[in-house]
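#onboarding

Welcome to the new folks! Below is a worked example of what a typical request in this channel looks like: someone posts a single protein sequence, and someone else replies with the predicted structure as tokens. Don't worry about understanding the tokens yet, we'll cover that in week two.

Example request:
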Amino acid sequence: MLYIAYGSNMNRRQMARRCPKARPLAAIWLTGWRLVMKRVADIEPDPHAVTPAALWEITRSCERALDTYEGFPHLYIKERLPIALPNGRRAKPMAYVMSGPRQRDYGPASNGYLASIADGYRDFGFDDLAPLRAAQVDAISAMRRAERSGRLDDAALSPPWAPGLAFGCE
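Example response:
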């Protein structure tokens, strides 16, 4: 099964722990999608945006491990995104896209999480970290607007999910 990662799952070391059978295939661009931060990475439709991403081949057990790690189906749902493969063919790999009550809950990610994504960008040959920086700056701005308007509460600052032990797919 083909899988698109745009956040920390671009990091090859982390994916090796979570899904040892996953195979990195290619660096790709998600046209029409913008990277956003909601304390964790997400993508949103934007006709003018492109987002760096990694294309993986995963097994069913890898998918189950990722489901647990990503908080599926409560934090993220699965969508099939049409992309052009490096060989020019078209495909619709699976990607996790945020849904539910946290869907509009913009907030900056931790430095460690951002570093993990930056490592993943470099793992797939993306040297320009501008999309990652822009997502973080936008999240900080959104949080400041929420603070000024009185819409920020303790729940907005809590972790979006408690990741499970999603390691060791077969």
